[in-house]
Amino acid sequence: MSSDDVPIGRRVARWRVRRSMTQQMLADRLRRSKSWVDKVERGVRALDRYSVIQELAHVLRVDPEVLLGQQRSTSAGTPDGVDDIRAALARYDTSQAPEQTDELRRQVGYAWLSYQHAHYGQLVRVLPGLLDAAQGARTPELLVQTYRITSSLLVKLGEADLGWLTADRAMSAAADDPILVATAAISVAQALRASNRDRLALTAAETAANRILPAPSHPVDHEVGGLRGDQTARQPHDQRSEGRSEGEGAPARRRPAGEWTVGGTLLVQAALAAAGCGESRRAEELTERAAGVAASLRGYDDPHRTSFGPVVVELARVLVVAQRGDAVEALQMHSTVVRREGWRRLPAEYRGAYLVDAATAYRKVGDLRGAARALVDADSVAPAEVRCRPLARTVIADVARAQPAPAGVARLAAVVGLTR
């Protein structure tokens, strides 16, 4: 049995023994029960959250990829298999026997983990079968998640239009569920931005955010998922006092924290799209609103896989400022935010993607050293972000043409097969 075939629970058990820990010792360090550790190791409890695997890896003193059974080395070039994904999207015959929901949920969780760890080669191989299973099962939540993962990967691999099509499939699968529609809108905005359709992305993201977030102009206290907050966009006072929200006559309800993370993510996407349109003031307003949402979230789960939080908003600010042309200010902000604890807790994919975006922004304003530093850092965090993405290869080529080429970029150019 190869390393990739060994269940993750068994790998946890192996490394626990290697570290001379009992199940109770591991449980104590994780602040969990011995029963939880036992169920994980026996495969009874699934490990499908990035943060939990990251926590386990930290305690066991290994890289998260080791627990996932995957190697950090990443070959250069776009992974083969995009045509298989395209073929799976073109299959409309869903008469096959549907997967059991629990098994399909496990597969979707594994796909998310592969994406968050930037294992794009592995994900390309997994997605065609997952798309077949999800399209056959027709469970809206899992179908939307599968389409979102697929769309995000296709955008990274330079297939923005196909990613847009897949994101639109997610919108259709979401039907009348407002939160599923909102999560699908995140993918729509990402695909539109990647297609240089920033104006459409701005409209799509801001409209979707406004549907699930209350109006931003009433600074009154609120609760987010049962947790107190006082710095974000609040439910309008007149709606609270009359017992109405989200439409005339609709009963007021407490929004789970997950809804606010989706809304905040949409605001971030809208801000980045506004910056792409040259609307700096609007971009700043949208990041301020997103910062308000992020400030009220404390200790929440992330069921919609957004990674949203205060650090994500700060990263968006850096990109907005860089897009505006203020390279010096952007570099100062960048240096500050990447030293924060919240930065290290973000998935490898998110950090790598941000660094590639930062490199792109620095290149646009002529700061080739800033672009080089961001590219080298991205390669150390998530090699596939640099070695598999056409966007990154383009930036590397541009920066490598400088005389002399900034440190580290010549090596990257050689790794990805580019010549000066």
Notable characteristics:
two-stranded antiparallel ribbon; 2 domains; Serine Threonine Protein Phosphatase 5, Tetratricopeptide repeat; 434 Repressor (Amino-terminal Domain); 66% helix; mainly alpha; 23 helices; 2 strands
Tell me what you see in this structure:
66% of the residues lie in helices and 1% in strands. The radius of gyration is 22 Å and the shape is globular. It is built from 23 helices and 2 strands. The longest helix has 20 residues, at 257-276. The two termini are 43 Å apart. A two-stranded antiparallel ribbon has the order 1-2. It has 2 domains: 3-68, lambda repressor-like DNA-binding domains (434 Repressor (Amino-terminal Domain)), CATH 1.10.260; 82-246 and 255-325, Alpha Horseshoe (Serine Threonine Protein Phosphatase 5, Tetratricopeptide repeat), CATH 1.25.40. α10 (160-174) packs antiparallel against α11 (178-194). It has 420 residues and is mainly alpha-helical.
Chain-wise SSE layout:
Layout (H helix, E strand, L loop, with lengths): L7 H11 L4 H8 L3 H9 L7 H11 L3 H5 L13 H8 L11 H16 L3 H18 L2 H17 L3 H15 L3 H17 L3 H15 L9 E3 L2 E3 L7 H6 L14 H20 L3 H16 L14 H15 L2 H11 L3 H5 L2 H17 L3 H14 L1 H5 L2 H11 L8 H7 L5
Helix pairs in contact: 1-3, 2-3, 6-8, 7-8, 7-9, 8-9, 9-10, 9-11, 10-11, 11-12, 11-14, 12-14, 14-15, 14-16, 15-16, 16-17, 16-19, 19-20, 19-22, 20-22, 22-23
